Amino acid sequence: MYSNQSPQTAYQQFYNNMPSYPQGNQQPPDKQPMVEKYPLQIWVAARAGISLTCAADLNVPEEGDTKNSPMEMHSGYSVFRMAIASSEKGSVVANIPANDIPYLLNQYQFQRNILNRQAMSKPNTPAYTVPIKERNCKNRTAAEVVQMENGLNILTNARKLFAANLGRYPKNRQMVEAIDEALYLYQSHHLSQTINLPPLYSSPVKPKSTADKNNRRTAYSISISGSSSLSVDWTFEIFNCKAFLRDMGKLKTVDVEHAEDKRTLTFKVTQQEMDLFIYRLQSTLENFERMNFSGQYKIAKKHVKYSREVPV
């Protein structure tokens, strides 16, 4: 899971207990058709050396399912598999349950409208348009950084750094001007406030069902959040680790504090890429449920008839 491999190779980790690249006399991976390499993939966003992918691994409840009725349409293993694969940093994976998708879709439309209105209403001046390329500023604009916790000190220190190197890096002047404007607007109480929205989607750290020989489990979490700094964009963050489960009465939680092999990767997508992602989630889910509805309804009706015939 954590080896430094290409995004194409790392993506195969989507398919737990599934064959990865074909065997025998079939073609090598780089010449395989997409239907063989990534049969369940519904969406991908790629940059140089890194990719974010989504695959649909949807499953209906089987007749012997003790937790889900046939008409619920999805078993507990019905998920969308997300992965960020980097040629330099390896890969991380996470699942979004099919039953979480309706909530995610509703939240997306709500947040998308807010972020787009916010982006359109911002002044077109350096404080709001120039990204500050300093580690603590995280490529945000000066107007955003100054509203962060300890943002005033972060911006002041960044300005000192940029101003001291104007001779070597002339482009620093643009960031100095942006910082000066943001500091003035902040101190004069004329700064346009940014609405900080909660994550669009966020999951707790969840363990996978299988454990290794040391009884550790691979665990994961995923969050998706929106921003309107320069334009509206969305950030996916996936965390993976290997950890023991900790007993909390009737519940078992992941012991993240003592986990090993911790890894977090992030991937930022544009509004256009995000719209396609949301569309693929919705259309895939709806088509899956339509395709399986008749069969699941027949199963349900069969058991309704059986329960009526069997005396209580």
Automatic annotation (TrEMBL):
Highest taxon of the lineage: Bacteria
For this entry, the protein name equals Uncharacterized protein
The species this protein belongs to is: Blautia obeum
